[in-house]
Design brief:
tRNA processing (chains A, B); three-stranded antiparallel sheet; six-stranded parallel sheet; tRNA_ribo_trans-like (chains A, B); TIM Barrel; 2 domains; glycosyltransferase (chains A, B); Queuine tRNA-ribosyltransferase (chains A, B); 15 helices; alpha/beta; homodimer; 19% strand
Chain lengths: 371, 371
C-alpha cells in the first residue's frame, strides 16, 4: 500500500498535488515544513505552529541527539510527546549538521566520527545509528544518513560521496526493516554534487531500493541560484513519479514556486524563521525590513489583507518598536507572520494546481513582486 | 463619585477586597499588576496576559517616553491601542527610573534633568510633564512625579525628598485638573524614607489633596525585609481608608501575603517576569530552578494541579531543555507560569477575605512552604 497519492497533475508543468499518509496524520502536498531544530520552532508554541498553517515540522537529529539526548526523549516515547506536537515530524539524518557544525568531523565508510560543538564530547554515528536515533525520536519521516560535500567539489569527491551515500542508503533501509518500525517512513537522499551524470546514477540506485519517498540533497550549499534550479529540475524526473519528492534546505519563495513547477512535493528551510528573528518579513510584494525608519509611525499591518495573528492584531510601528528594543515578543510575532506567509504560499499553489492554473499563479506571483 | 468600593473587610486583619473602576474596566482588589516596561509584558501576547489572570498591567513612563516616544504612541491614541491591550494600565511617573537608570540625573525643585541611558540625549521632566506624558500614554492610573532616595538615607535628605514630593503632588494634581482628563486617575505617592514621622507628614499632606488613590513609594530599595514590612504596616493606616492603596515595587509572594493583611490593595513587581527569564519558577511549595539536574527527565508539570497553559501542556524536562538551550519559548512558558502563580495567589486571597478566612489562608500559605 502506497503512503503517497497524487491528486492533481498540472497539465503544462510537472507540478502536482498529493497527500502523504504518516503515523500522525495526512500531509497535503506540495508542503513547506518549518524547521524546529531543538524540539521547538523557535519562538512559537505548538498551537501557533498549527495556526500558522504548518502541517508538518522538521527536527534536527544532530541537535536533538546532543540535547536533550535520546534518553530524555525516550521517556516521552518520542519527540511528539516531548514537545507536545501531535502532527507529523520529519527528521534529517544528522549528516549535514555533523558536516557543518561539529568539530573534528571525520567520515569513514562506517559513518561519522565527530566531537560535539557544545562540549567537545566524542561521538560515532553509523548509518544504522542514524536510523535508530530517528526511530527513538519516533519521526514520521526519517532520512538516510548521507555524505554532504562542499560547493564547489571535484568530480572525484562528488562521485565518492554519491557512492558512499548509496551504500549507506541500503544499510539504513536494512536497519529500519530489522527494527520493524510500522508506519515510520525512511526516505533516500540523492547526492552527486553538481554533476548531472552522478545525480542520475544516485537517483537510479536509490529508485532500485524502492524507498517510500526521495529527497534531493546537496543543494542550496552556495551554488548560483540558476545552477541550483537546474540541478533540481534535471534530477526530479529521475525519481519515481508516484513517490513524494523533497528538496532539502530550499528556500526562498521564488525557489518554492519554481521547484513546485518541477514536481517537488516537500520543502524545508530556516529562512522564514531565521529572517523573522532578523526583522525581515515576507510579503507578496517582496521582503521588508521592519526596522526601516519609514515604519516608525506606520499603523498598518505587515501585509494588508494577511490573515495571520500578527497582521490581525499589530501594526508595523509596534513591531518595529518591539524589534528595535529586542523584546522577545518581536521574534514570535515576526515568526508567526513569516511561517504563515510560507504555508499560505504553498496553499495558494495547491489550489492553483487543483484548478490547473499553476502557470497563471506563477505569473501573478512574479508580477506582484516586480510590478 | 468614588471610583473605589470596598466590598469585604477582614474581621481580624486590615485585609479587604474591593473594586476599582477605570476607563478600561473594573479591577478586583487586592491585585497584582505584571510589569510591561516597554509596551509588552516580556515574552507574552496580550491574550496570554489575560489568560494568566492579569487584570491590569504597569507601563514604565521613562522607558516609553524614550522608546518609542510619545509621538508614536499619540498616533494610536495611547498605549492600549499601540500594544493591543484593552484592559487597564497603570504607569509610573518615570521618577524612579530616571533616578536608577538615566545618566547624569539632576533634581531641582522644578523636576529632573537627565540624559537617556540609550543615546545620551538630554531631557527635562517637570511634574507637569510627567502628567502630560502619562496622559499621552492614556494611562488609566497615573502616578505623581516623586523624588526617590537611596537606602540608607539621612533624615535630612529623606525630609527634603518628602517635601519636594508633596509639592510636586500638588503641581501634578493641578496639571491633571487643567487637562480635564475625564476618567484618568492620578495617585499620590508617600515618601519619607524609613522615618515614620516623615511618612506620617507625607501621608497627611497627600490625604489633604484628596487623590483618588495613594501609593507607598520608596520601599524595596535594599532595606531589610522586616523594616520594609514595618514601614508599610505603619504607613497604611495613615492613608484614607476608602481609597485604593498601592505599595510600589513589592514583591515576593510572602510580601504580598503580609501586606494584603496590612490593607494593601495593589502591587507590582518585576519578580515573576524577571525570575521566569532566569529559570526560577514559583510554586505553593516555594521556588524551583528549572535548570536543576533533577528535572532533566521529570515528566511532571512545574506544579501539580496548576491550571496555567505551561503546566497543562509541558513537562519540567521539556522546560529544562528549552531553558538550557536558551530557546525563546522557554522565557514565555516560564513567564506564563509565574504570572499565573502571582495572579492566582491574589485570587486566593480575595476569596479568603470574602469568606473572612484570611488568617487561615495565611497559615496554609506558610505551612505549604515550610512543611
Amino acid at each position: 500500500m502506497s503512503v503517497f497519492a497524487i491528486e492533481t497533475q498540472s497539465s503544462d508543468t510537472r507540478a502536482r498535488t498529493g497527500s502523504l499518509a504518516t503515523a500522525h496524520g495526512i500531509v497535503k502536498t506540495p508542503v513547506f515544513m518549518p524547521v524546529g531544530t531543538l524540539g521547538t520552532v523557535k519562538a512559537l508554541s505548538p498551537e501557533e505552529i498549527s495556526a500558522c498553517g504548518a502541517q508538518i515540522i522538521l527536527g534536527n537529529t544532530y541537535h536533538l541527539y546532543l540535547r536533550p539526548g535520546c534518553d530524555v526523549i525516550d521517556i516521552f516515547a518520542g519527540l511528539h510527546g516531548f514537545m507536545n506536537w501531535n502532527a507529523p515530524i520529519l527528521t534529517d539524518s544528522g549528516g549535514f549538521q555533523i558536516f557543518s557544525l561539529a568539530k573534528m568531523a571525520k567520515i569513514t565508510t562506517d559513518g561519522y566520527a565527530f566531537q560535539s560543538h557544545i562540549d567537545g564530547s566524542r561521538h560515532l554515528i553509523s548509518p544504522e545509528d542514524a536510523v535508530d536515533i530517528q526511530l527513538r525520536l519516533n519521526s514520521d519521516i526519517l532520512m538516510c544518513l548521507d555524505q554532504c560535500i562542499s560547493y564547489p567539489a571535484e568530480e572525484k569527491e562528488a562521485q565518492g560521496a554519491h557512492e558512499l551515500t548509496l551504500d549507506w542508503a541500503s544499510r539504513c533501509q536494512k536497519q529500519i526493516q530489522a527494527r520493524n518500525p510500522g508506519q515510520n517512513l525512511l526516505f533516500g537522499i540523492v547526492q552527486g554534487g553538481m554533476y548531472p551524470h552522478l545525480r542520475r546514477l544516485s537517483a537510479r540506485g536509490l529508485a532500485e531500493l524502492d524507498f517510500p519517498g526521495y529527497a534531493v540533497g546537496g543543494l542550496s550549499v552556495g551554488e548560483p541560484v540558476a545552477l541550483m534550479h537546474e540541478m533540481a529540475r534535471s534530477t526530479l524526473p529521475l525519481l519515481p513519479e508516484n513517490k513524494p519528492r523533497y528538496v532539502m534546505g530550499v528556500g526562498r519563495p521564488e525557489d518554492l514556486v519554481e521547484m513546485t513547477g518541477f514536481g517537488v512535493d516537500m520543502f524545508d528551510c530556516v529562512m522564514p524563521t531565521r529572517n523573522a528573528r532578523n526583522g525581515q518579513l515576507f510579503t507578496a510584494f517582496g521582503k521588508i525590513n521592519i526596522s526601516n525608519a519609514k515604519f516608525r509611525t506606520d499603523t498598518g499591518p505587515i501585509e494588508p489583507g494577511c490573515t495571520c495573528y500578527t497582521c490581525q492584531n499589530f501594526s508595523r510601528a509596534y513591531l518595529q518598536h518591539l524589534y528595535r528594543t529586542r523584546e522577545i515578543l518581536a521574534y514570535r510575532l515576526n515568526t508567526i507572520h513569516n511561517i504563515h506567509y510560507y504555508t499560505a504560499l504553498m496553499g495558494q499553489m495547491r489550489s492553483a494546481i487543483e484548478k490547473d492554473r499553476f502557470l497563471t499563479f506563477r505569473d501573478d506571483f512574479y508580477r506582484k513582486r516586480h510590478p
